[in-house]
Model the fold of this input.
Amino acid sequence: MPQDHYVAETYLRAFIDPKTNRLHAYRKRGSGYFTPSPDSVCKTMNWDQTPKFLSPPDALGLWLKIFEPHWASVVAKLAASHDLAPDGKYVIAGYWAHLSTCTPAWRRVAADLQQHELDTIYVERFIAHAQTHLDEFPKAADYLPLLKDGKFRIEIDKDFTKAMVTTQLLKHQWCLYHEAWDVIWNDTDELFLTSDNPSCLDYEYGGPIRAARYLPLAPRLALWTLIDPENLPEIRTNIPPAKPSAGRRATTKFARDMNRLVIQSAEDIVLASEPKPYIPLCVQKYKSWKVRAEVRRIPVADGHYELIQTRAAERI
Done:
C-alpha cells in the first residue's frame, strides 16, 4: 500500500539545509530532533484515496497532479524574478488550497466541526423525528434514551470529511487566486520555518475576526493574504486575478512572529533549513498548541448566534 505525501516533496525541498541536503525537524510530541530527507516525512498511507465517497477514488491525487509538477519551477521563478505572473499564481493557489484544507490538521478541524454540528443539531432533530415516527424506527425505545444521555454517540466518518474537503478544493483555489497577495522577501537573519501544516491562519497581522493566510515558500520567501470570499468572479477559465499582488520586505519582527505562528500551527513536526537554538525551545513551549475550531454561542432574545473561529490555540 503506497504512502502519499500530504505536504509534497517538491514543497519540502525548498527548506533543506544546503550543507547536508537534509531537513532539520523538531517534534512537538516527545520533543525529538532528527534530520530527515524530504521524501521521508509528511506522508501517510493512501492519503490521496477516498473510495467510499468519491468517484474516481483518487480525485485528490488527480488534483495534485495538476499542480505539484509545476510547483518547484514556479516558486524558483518567483524567487528569482520577483514577478508573480497569473499562470504562476494559479499554480500556487491550486496547491495552497490543498495545504489549507487537506493536511491532517485541517482535516481534523473539519471533522471536529462536522461532529459538533452533528451533536448539537442533527442528533436532536433525529430524536424528535424518531419519537414522532415510531413506525419507521421500531427499536427507537431501546437506543433513544442512550442518545439523550450521551451514552451512545454517533460519530462522523473521517472518510466523509476527507471527501468533503476534496470537493471544495476548486472554491478554495478560486478564492486564493483572486486575492491580493503580499509576496514577502526575507533578507533578515530569521529564516522562515515551515511544518507539516504550513498554511497558517494569522489574526495578528490580519484582524480579530477576519484572518489572513500565511504560507512560507522557502526560507527567504513567503506569501500572505487577507481572505475576503465575497464578490469573487464566476469560476471560469483564462481570466486574470481580480486583485493585484505586491512585493514586501520582511522585518525581523514579522519573520519571528510568523515562525512562532508556524510552530503553534504545526500538527507535530516543525521544519527548518538550519538549526537554531531557539527552535527546540519554542517547539517545547508550544507543544500543546494546534489549530482548533473555537465555537462560541452568543445569547439573543429568540435563541443564539454561533460564532466559529479557527486558530492556533493551546489545548485546554
Notes: The two ends are 37 Å apart (CA to CA).
